Automatic annotation (TrEMBL):
Keywords: NAD, Oxidoreductase. PANTHER family: BINDING ROSSMANN FOLD OXIDOREDUCTASE, PUTATIVE (AFU_ORTHOLOGUE AFUA_2G10240)-RELATED, NAD(P)-BINDING ROSSMANN-FOLD SUPERFAMILY PROTEIN-RELATED. This is Myo-inositol 2-dehydrogenase/D-chiro-inositol 1-dehydrogenase. One of its GO terms (molecular function) is oxidoreductase activity. Belongs to the Gfo/Idh/MocA family. InterPro entries: Gfo/Idh/MocA-like_OxRdtase_N (IPR000683), GFO_IDH_MocA-like_dom (IPR055170), NAD(P)-bd_dom_sf (IPR036291). Residues 1-118 form the Gfo/Idh/MocA-like oxidoreductase N-terminal domain. Residues 126-246 form the GFO/IDH/MocA-like oxidoreductase domain. The keyword Oxidoreductase applies. Pfam families: GFO_IDH_MocA (PF01408), GFO_IDH_MocA_C3 (PF22725). It comes from the Bacteria.
């Protein structure tokens, strides 16, 4: 397949290397508004480089991967849908709720498939828990706890355009809670705090976030996030049911130390970043996109799914600003 990629920054360069490693990709075409950056990435993997997004869309692509900074997602996705190019777009599809709603309507009115990049759906552990919940193995689900704990904060320049910790970080938790439970969020109560670098406060953001969600089934969901988990990168989801419990991320890479005598679990080494933690999931995700681009399957994560995760993040922002629970009915939808 001939695949285009726009944006070869941190996640884009990672995707370029992943695409290059997959047997399904015969030709890879790159674009980045920083020309040297695209050239550098291309030289390492033998890819083509074009000088504009329009040239990329006109390059005879079987599929397109959008991995630009967040402000570039929506404009390029609009162009791709208009051109009829089947597209994989990193989350979020847009920086604002209104534009995400507009893109949802646009995508659903088109016959051009769009696959949104929530890679946890392609992690084996998350898929196993989703199957267990759907099959009733755990009974009724009364509690879910989901954590996204970064070992180190991103560069200060990233935060002003990130959308905040709920939209940038916990949006993965929001999506995977919907995926695992098969339910929708009914209410949200969120808060946050800052004890780290001043640039979080300066951007109106938090370095640590927490939220309590209630699903439409009555399940209670606890969400946590931080940019300062010194022990290591920890992404974990615990699902508790009336018949049993399961946990994603409970292995020797767990970034915790036991306080109990004689316990040598976990043995390590820990993960240090999301790319290390989810490499197999990223590969599986892009492989699934090739099936979408080939017309062999429908999108496994639609723009509508992205909208619902964004709405939960938006509800969290409203809750922390207003200091009260927020019903999802208060948040606009398409």
């Amino acid at each position: 397949m001939r695949i285009g990629l726009t944006g070869v920054g941190r996640i884009g360069a990672f995707h370029a290397a992943t695409l290059h490693s997959l047997a399904s990709v015969d030709e890879l075409v790159l674009y980045d508004f920083v020309g040297d950056q695209a050239r550098k990435a291309a030289d390492g993997i033998g890819a083509e480089v074009v000088d504009s997004e329009d040239a990329l869309l006109a390059a005879g692509l079987d599929g397109l991967v959008i991995a630009t900074a967040t402000p570039g997602h929506a404009p390029m996705l609009r162009k791709a849908i208009a051109a009829g190019v089947r597209t994989f777009c990193e989350k979020p599809v847009a920086a604002t709720l209104d534009e995400t709603i507009d893109l949802t309507r646009l995508a659903e009115a088109s016959d051009t498939p769009v696959h949104v990049g929530f890679q946890r759906r392609f992690d084996h552990g998350y898929q196993r828990v989703q199957q267990a919940v759907a099959a009733g193995e755990l009974g009724f689900i009364h509690t879910i706890r989901s954590h996204t704990l970064d070992q180190n904060p991103p560069h200060a320049s990233y935060i002003p355009t990130s959308g905040g910790i709920f939209r940038d970080c916990n949006i993965h938790d929001f999506d995977v809670v919907r995926f695992v439970s098969g339910r929708e969020v009914a209410t949200v109560y969120a808060t946050g705090g800052n004890q780290g670098a001043e640039f979080f406060k300066e951007s109106g953001d938090y370095d640590t976030g927490g939220a309590m969600l209630t699903l439409d089934s009555g399940t209670v969901v606890q969400i946590s996030s931080t940019r300062y988990n010194g022990q290591g990168h920890d992404v974990r989801t615990e699902v508790f049911g009336s018949k049993g419990s399961m946990c994603v991320g409970l292995d020797d890479t767990l970034a915790m130390v036991s306080a109990e005598d004689g316990v040598d679990f976990p043995k390590g080494p820990v993960h240090t970043n999301f790319m290390d933690r989810f490499l197999p999931a990223y590969q599986a995700e892009l492989t699934a996109f090739f099936d979408v681009a080939s017309g062999l399957r429908e999108s496994p994560c639609t723009v509508r799914d992205a909208l619902e995760a964004f709405r939960i993040a938006e509800a969290c922002e409203l809750s922390r600003m207003r200091g009260r629970p927020v019903s999802m009915d208060e948040v606009a939808t398409a």
